[in-house]
Write a structure and sequence with these properties.
The complex is a heterodimer of chains A (225) and B (79). Helices cover 41% and strands 23% of the residues of chain A. Chain A has seven helices and nine strands. The longest helix of chain A is centred in the C-terminal third of the chain and has 23 residues, at 142-164. By secondary structure, chain B is of the alpha+beta class. Chain B is built from three helices and three strands, in the order H-E-E-H-H-E. In chain B, a hairpin with a 3-residue loop joins strand 1 and strand 2. In chain B, helix 1 runs antiparallel to helix 3. The N and C termini of chain B lie far apart (24 Å). Classes of the chains: A alpha+beta (225), B alpha+beta (79). Chain A binds chain B through residues 71, 74-75, 78-81, 102, 105-106, 108, 112-113, 115-117, 119-120, 123-124, 127, and chain B through 3-4, 6-7, 10-11, 14-15, 49, 53-54, 56-58, 60-61, 63-65, 67-69.
């Protein structure tokens, strides 16, 4: 979190500079006065500068949601599509929903455009508020639909693994998608899941668990993550 | 094509510490539009991001916007 020390002629001036530098309204700053400053005699002799220490107040998610909505709307203004952004502060993240009639374009292949917007908005407001703010950008319920189709995929693959008694890998996936697969098969005793590969090529491998098979069973307990 | 230029400019300015030093130009071709981005030296890293993640995200959004205009767009970040 960024802390600033500012020295100016007067207290008001220092606070104004602080707001400007941190791009935040006064209410969202935590201001600590180090010296009040005085103009001295006739403003010449013994003039002392005012000094303050400021840091952004821990912002509420409501405020973050509001800012995130503004940032996203501002970016979308230049995508040449009429859009409306809805914002909602949820327990641990800010949820933004884009309403438009050209959402396919904004979602992109496998949601990559949504993910790009989400990443940038999160970076921009985290920088602004001096704290990491997780943001989820959605359009037409894409995230929920994606989660459902990944769960279906997980179930299909696990059925195949059980039938063939051989491990099967999914395609390359990002962390959120892999998490959905792991969670979907968490309560399936007949298979276990593991992530394999590096960086962008990381994927989930689903292994069969042999009932009563000594060693493989122990493994499944220890290396489930 | 004003939008594409502005789009990159808006995002880059939001990421930079010195937004006033962000300079975006566009070179328009028949089908392709090249967007050139210049910024303060210490801001280039901020705009590109760790492992180029910011730059990658900007390009993804730029491509979506360009598709709408039936164009191709290329983002060049110039040192």
């Amino acid at each position: 979190m960024s802390v600033l020390e500012i020295e100016e002629k007067s207290l008001e001036e220092a606070i104004r500079v602080a707001c400007e530098r941190l791009k935040l309204p006064r209410e969202l700053l935590e201001i600590e006065i180090i010296s009040k400053g005085s103009s001295g005699i006739f403003g010449i002799v013994g003039a002392k500068k005012a000094k303050i220490r400021v840091r952004p107040k821990v912002p509420s998610f409501e405020h973050a949601a509001e800012r995130a909505k503004e940032v996203l709307s501002y970016i979308l203004e230049y995508v040449n599509l009429p859009t409306v952004v809805e914002a909602e502060a949820r327990d641990d993240h800010v949820y933004l929903n884009i309403v438009s009639n050209g959402s396919g374009l904004l979602i992109g292949k496998k949601g990559q455009t949504l993910t790009a917007l989400q990443y940038l908005v999160s970076r921009i407001i985290s920088k602004e508020l001096g704290r990491n703010i997780p943001v989820v950008v959605d359009a037409e319920n894409y995230r929920a639909r994606r989660e459902k189709s990944l769960q279906d995929l997980a179930r299909q693959l696990s059925a195949k693994v059980k039938r063939l008694k051989k491990p099967i890998a999914t395609g390359p996936m990002n962390a959120q998608d892999r998490r959905i697969i792991h969670l979907a098969l968490k309560d399936e005793p007949a298979v276990k899941t593991k992530s394999k590969g590096e960086g962008n090529m990381r994927r989930v491998v689903i292994y069969p668990v042999r009932a009563g098979g000594g060693s493989s069973r122990n493994n499944s307990r220890n290396s489930n993550r | 094509m004003k939008e594409l230029k502005k789009l990159v400019e808006v995002i880059a300015r939001a990421l930079a510490e010195h937004p006033d030093k962000v300079d975006v130009r566009e070179i328009e071709g028949q089908n392709t539009c090249v967007i050139e981005l210049r910024a303060a030296k210490e801001d280039l890293g901020k705009i590109i991001g760790r492992e180029g993640r910011n730059a990658h995200a900007i390009r993804t959004i730029l491509n979506a916007a360009a598709t709408k205009l039936r164009k191709r767009a290329v983002l060049e970040i110039i040192e």
